[in-house]
Amino acid sequence: HAKREQAGEPVWFESWMSEEYRESVVLESELREAIARNELQLFYQPQVNLQTKEVDGCEALLRWFHPERGMISPAVFIPIAERSMLIEEIGMWVVQESVQQVRRWEGTPLASLRVSANLSVKELVSGRIVEFLTEVRNRYPGIEQRMELEITESFGVFSDTRVFDALQTLHGIGYRLAIDDFGTGYSSLSYLSRLPIQRLKIDRSFISGPDACSNAPLIETIIRLAHTLKYDVVAEGIEQAEQGENLRKLDCEYGQGFYYSRPIPADEFEIWYNRYQEKLKQSG
Ligand code: C2E
Ligand code: MG
Ligand code: MG
Ligand code: MG
């Protein structure tokens, strides 16, 4: 698809495009009301330490349950929300909900888990989410160490000083930061080394995509690069035991993917976690 973009084809003149556009306008207005109507929910997916097999944390992934259309993927509605300031509303809801989840798990076996929330670069530009995260941290001291914020790499975003400053502020008040989908966004190496982050997440296309088999040298290079910069690495999209094992051998610290669990609601996640812990104990 990259080639197609480079070719600069006037895709917006294609007939399906206007239909899609009209559709997205309808979705946008419905999304505007989704929060008030309680249609949004966070699902959780474990992140596992590939060496010890212990669960290290979980990623919070947004789901929209539309009364007529059923579940709508964030891959569909996040880009729509990003066209307007709706994304700020959603981002604050996601942060608030993740924080409440951390607090609900306090005093339970899941209290040691960190919750990673996804933030859009669009939100970092306006800065409102930074204020919100500052308030959250003042209200619940220590919460910043239990949270991680994943920011998707996309072309040139980290050279935007507003984005860079936002990351700097969040880092300064103790939030952990990760670059999401690493390897797909052509981020410049000079910026990468200066970002106040702790983690790189290798995009799942390298792990379980169609070319995954030939990607081993590339994956190894990304892991080495991350370690040179003192970042640790999470591999996304682990679907088979063997993929996790290979990544562990390449010194990748953490793994995430359907092999461990799909993203599931919090109550199911608790059940999954307890079962997983049982199995871990039995196996060694
Ligand atoms: P992401 O942050 O890179 O999340 C990982 C995506 O990969 C999730 O898709 C997850 O369900 C999927 N995934 C995990 N393991 C596997 C696997 O083993 N195989 C395959 N094929 N897929 C796997 P999901 O939940 O549909 O989210 C898609 C994207 O939407 C996310 O990518 C993220 O960029 C965005 N997103 C999701 N929730 C939020 C949110 O709360 N805020 C923002 N701004 N973006 C979000
Ligand atoms: Mg993510
Ligand atoms: Mg990702
Ligand atoms: Mg993504």
Automatic annotation (TrEMBL):
Coiled coil regions, renumbered to chain: none
Superkingdom, taxonomy of origin: Bacteria
Domain EAL residue range list: 24-277
Protein name: Diguanylate cyclase
Lineage of the species this protein comes from: Bacteria, Bacillati, Bacillota, Bacilli, Bacillales
